[in-house]
Design goal:
alpha/beta; Rossmann fold
Length: 129
């Protein structure tokens, strides 16, 4: 699904992941530790961060799941995924351009799904899997 330009930036202008992270990322850094605790993220765990954006929440989960686990950051905007893909520097992180309600892979029941962006904006999220 392509939402085109204008989804994370004004039409005709490129996505500015740095500006997005300066706004959203700072809020994520405040509440993601509580989110990880509530989700019971553990070493060797598998996390699915829906609407990952600049990846702040997903990247914060990497040290917790360690190299025996993995984190998938899914976002509608492929351009937004460049930032977490570059910053992760880890084989334990997978960036996926996808709609969180129609993921391109099976077996999501074993994942710990969350949407930090949704928690920040108090929007509901449907169950995954």
């Amino acid at each position: 699904m392509d939402f085109g330009s204008g989804f994370h930036a004004p039409v005709g202008r490129p996505v500015d992941a740095v500006a997005y992270d300066c706004y959203i990322g700072r809020w994520s850094r405040l509440f993601v530790p509580a989110l990880m605790s509530a989700a019971e993220v553990f070493a060797g765990g598998q996390v699915l961060d829906l609407a990952t954006g600049s990846g702040e929440a997903a990247l914060m989960a990497l040290p917790v799941v360690q190299t025996s686990g993995y984190v998938i950051g899914a976002d509608l905007s492929p351009a937004m995924l460049d930032a977490p893909r570059t910053r992760a520097g880890s084989r334990s992180f997978l960036a996926v351009a996808a709609d969180g309600q129609s993921l391109p892979f099976p077996g999501t029941r074993a994942l710990t799904p969350w949407c930090a962006n949704s928690a920040c904006n108090s929007s509901p999220i449907r169950s995954v899997g």
